[in-house]
Every structure is written in structure tokens, then in C-alpha cells.
């Protein structure tokens, strides 16, 4: 996710690459790779990465969150804005770990950020002002859309749009396999599938009709679509996707209990 955000803001000229400092736990090879690819600057130490930053973006796995955030605490300065893209970890927990009252916001983008099409949800912590929120909105709008939500809704967002691209790729994977088994080439199938998904997405975005209404327009009685949807219903795919999202939401809630 950190790379997707970097790629997005650099491509859209929101930030110059040489103003972005990066640091991870110990993988210097990965830092060098990112430097070569984007022109960002690896920091030799945590202190160097944090001390001069205007905005600190936390993009680590929830299991590493406590150790990572607490390691920043000695170097964080008053008024630095902290933005977390860590799943499940609340702004209150981050404030507790950093032992200060810095403004903290949580963002839940998705990996489509790398091409400027992230669906990002944004929530502010108790010490964050509207000015901080606007700064974050301007940042994340460079990589897609931004929706402001109360923090207690971010678990839902995580399971829905945070993980959402993977659900769509899962569908595309199945469509690709079926097409190739039925003798279309890989490239023929990819072109047809990607354009179909794009078109359906734009219909959802640009019309006032609901998904149900749009689906019914394609589903003629006795036709091919009805036959295909019938098979999906037979396998309870609709219910499976609802269960999938709810399970992802519960997992986000579980990650939020990490201390």
C-alpha cells in the first residue's frame, strides 16, 4: 500500500519524489529498489525519517504496528500530522503508543491508488482539526476518490473497499479460466473481461440505477444471462460474497484489538 500511494502521488505531481523519505524495519534492498524506481529517499535511521517530516504515513502490517509506532515516539514532534493506513488500529491506540497529542487520521485506500483510482475512506482522531482533514483529503484525492466516514465505520470500509479489489480480481480470475477452457486465448479473454468490468463499473458510477436494476436489464427471461445467474444462485455466490465481506470486517475488528 505504501508503494501504491507513493506511485500515485508522484505520478500526479502532488509531491516531488525527492521530498518523500522512506524507512522500513530492516530490508535495505527493498528501500534501494523503491529509490531506483521512484526517486524517493531511503532514510538511514528512524530518527532521520521522522524528525523533519511534515506528514508521517504509517503503512505497516497490524502485527508489527505496536513495535513500529512505539519506535517513532522519541522523534515525533508537536504538530506533525500522522496518517495511518494500518487496518484495524484506532487513532486512540496510535496516540497511546506515541504518547503525545499529535493530530492522527486514519485512511483506508486500496491498491488502485497506484493508477489514481483508489476508493479511500478517511477518519479523523480527536486531536485532528478540519485543516488536517483537508490536507489529507487533498493528498488522497490525487490517487482517487475520498469519502469521510466516522472512525467506527472504518472496519466496514476495510472489508468492503479496502479488500474490494481482490474480490474483483477473484471474479476476473474465474472468468479468465472459464474463457480459456472454452478456447479463447489469454489476451482475447483479458481484453474482453477488463473492458466488461470497466463498463459495468462506470454504469454503476454514472447512472442513478441500483445494481439490481442494472442486472435485471441484462437478464432477459430464458436468455444466456439468466442461465448463468441461475448457476451462481445454485452455488449461493451472492450469499458467499456477503459472508466474505462480513468476515473481512470481523478480521479488521480483531486486528484492532492488537496491543
From TrEMBL:
Catalytic activity, EC: 1.5.1.2
Main enzyme class: oxidoreductase
Pathway(s) this gene product operates in, as recorded in its UniProt entry: Amino-acid biosynthesis; L-proline biosynthesis; L-proline from L-glutamate 5-semialdehyde: step 1/1
Record Gene3D superfamilies: NAD(P)-binding Rossmann-like Domain, ProC C-terminal domain-like
BP GO terms, sorted: L-proline biosynthetic process
Compartmental location: Cytoplasm
GO molecular function: pyrroline-5-carboxylate reductase activity
Keyword Cytoplasm: yes
Ligand binding (NADP(+)): 59-62
Catalytically driven reaction(s): L-proline + NADP(+) = (S)-1-pyrroline-5-carboxylate + NADPH + 2 H(+); L-proline + NAD(+) = (S)-1-pyrroline-5-carboxylate + NADH + 2 H(+)
Residues annotated as domain Pyrroline-5-carboxylate reductase dimerisation: 151-255
Any Pfam family matching the protein: P5CR_dimer
Function text: Catalyzes the reduction of 1-pyrroline-5-carboxylate (PCA) to L-proline.
Protein name (record): Pyrroline-5-carboxylate reductase
Biological source species: Fictibacillus arsenicus
Gene this chain is encoded by: proC
